Amino acid sequence: MTSDFTYYTPTKVVFGKNTESQVGTLIKEFKGKKVLIHYGSASAKRSGLLDKIITSLIQSGLDYVTLGGVVPNPRLSLVHEGIALCKQEGVDFLLAVGGGSVIDSCKAIGYGLYNEGEVWDFYDRKRVVNGCYPIGAILTLAAAGSEMSSSSVITNEEGDLKRGLNSDTSRCRFAIMNPELTYTLPPYQTMCGAVDIMMHTMERYFTAKGNMFITDGLAEALLKTVIYYAPKLKNKPDDYEGRANLMWASSLSHNGLTSAGNSSPGDWAPHQLEHEIGGMFDVAHGAGLSAIWNSWATYVYANNPSRFANFGEKVFDLPRTKNVEADALAAIEATKDFFASLDMPINLNQLGIHPTEAQIVEMAEKCTFFGKRTLGDFKTLGKEDLIAIYKNAEK
Ligand code: NZQ
Ligand code: ZN
Predict the structure, then answer these.
(1) What is the separation of C-alpha 287 from the centre of its chain, rounded to a whole number of angstroms?
(2) Are 291 and 207 members of one domain?
(3) Is residue 18 part of a domain?
(4) Does 36 map to a domain?
(5) Among candidates 105, 156, 150, which has minimal Cα distance to 126?
(6) b vs e for 120-143, b when ≥16 Cβ sit within 10 Å of the residue's Cβ?
(7) SS3 for 162?
(8) pTM of the model
(9) 136 in a structural domain
(10) pLDDT by residue for the chain (395 residues), tens digit each?
(11) Which atom of ligand 1 is nearest to the CA of 274?
């Protein structure tokens, strides 16, 4: 079935070797004059990328300030610091150099600059954003898809609340993607990225009321691409084809392509379940997803076993039998095995966390915004369901 849709992907993608040297020209194209270069803890400096960027900006006659220190699960306190710095320095363009955390931190700074008042209000659903300062990204990690998505996810240290916010106004003006910049990633981060890329498409695949035929085909091709290339990167981190395919998959998985025409924007319960794990235990997002997915899938598949059976057949080339229930379970098993083959955790124990009963209840309550919403589309989930999924994910 096909539903009406709006597909909006305004980001200019500049993909390939040495593309980061074009950054100054691109910022000028988008009318930036004074730039905030925002980055993470160490990798962009260590690799020499920051120096290269600064050279390009200077050559283009652009003024700049820098702010590093973004950590995975980016924090609100640094966002506040960034907003104050940009106001003081008269910054008019934000450049994110890094992965999802840096891009998301930039988006939050952009909201804080454009809109009056406390920026957390928007993540806390107290107010609605009117716009965002312009952002460009130089991607160094194929994972979150923030370089083309409308989302940003910020953690408020007060209460360990991790909250996402969607607005088209935050979509990057441009995204520079040089697959070679991802060669330096530790294997764990590469595989966390592979899981996250898959999950952005899988969340959109498992809808309650069906998907557009072409969109299913695109989703299956994207998933097969990650399944083909991610294992190769385990032994050969500088495999250009593998890095390039993962990088493009990261963007396509979260720019709306794999939900266009579907009956809903997707399920997203595994993501919401993970966000609370990340907020409380500060784990890597992709690892949190692989640790919770199996429990979620096992809990919900009976709502429509044939959808899971179809997933197993199309994505993992599993044979179909006359027993749809068995085929669905085989699909879940194949996904779990694949994540394990990437050395990703497939339960909370393997993720290295052991939530207490009280912590599980707290995460479930936070997931429902303290009773204000249910989760899921494939199967609607309330607090008790979420508690059961967290518990079943323990081992
Ligand atoms: O800080 P540095 O030193 O750069 O190290 C980072 C960080 O420790 C490292 N890294 C990045 N590029 C590297 C590198 N190390 C070596 N070489 C490189 N080229 O990788 C670590 C993880 O980086 P991070 O940006 O946190 O990873 P990711 O891209 O997976 O982003 C995760 C965040 O994005 C959010 C997640 O919840 C999480 O907070 N998400 C954002 C989304 C969005 N905006 O659309 C959607 C996602 O579902 C997700 O929720
Ligand atoms: Zn994700």
Answers:
(1) 12
(2) yes
(3) yes
(4) yes
(5) 156
(6) bebbeeeeebeebbbbbbbbbbbb
(7) strand
(8) 0.97
(9) yes
(10) 899 999 999 999 999 999 999 999 999 999 999 999 999 999 999 999 999 999 999 999 999 999 999 999 999 999 999 999 999 999 999 999 999 999 999 999 999 999 999 999 999 999 999 999 999 999 999 999 999 999 999 999 998 899 999 999 999 999 999 999 999 999 999 999 999 999 999 999 999 999 999 999 999 999 999 999 999 999 999 999 999 999 999 999 999 999 999 999 999 999 999 999 999 999 999 999 999 999 999 999 999 999 999 999 999 999 999 999 999 999 999 999 999 999 999 999 999 999 999 999 999 999 999 999 999 999 999 999 999 999 999 98
(11) 37
CA distances from 14 to 28, 146, 147 (A): 15, 15, 11
Domain boundary among 140, 157, 181: 181
Which value, in Å, is the radius of gyration of the alpha carbons in the chain?
A: 20
Same domain, 159 and 75: yes
Residues 194 and 157 in one domain: no
Cβ contacts of residue 336 below 8 Å, gap of 6+? 293, 294, 346
CATH number, domain at 381?
A: 1.20.1090.10
How far apart are the CA of 166 and the centre of ligand 2, in A? 13
> Which residue has its alpha carbon closest to ligand 1 atom 26?
72
Residue in 285, 292, 293, 344 to alter for ligand 1 test, most ligand atoms within 8 A of Cβ: 285
Q: What is the CATH number of the domain that holds 50?
A: 3.40.50.1970
Distance 89 CA to ligand 2 centre (A): 33
One domain for residues 154 and 251: no
Task: Choose the residue to mutate in 141, 162, 251 for probing ligand 1, maximizing ligand atoms within 8 Å of C-beta.
Answer: 141
Statement to judge: residues 117 and 202 lie in one domain: no
How many domains are contained in the chain?
A: 2
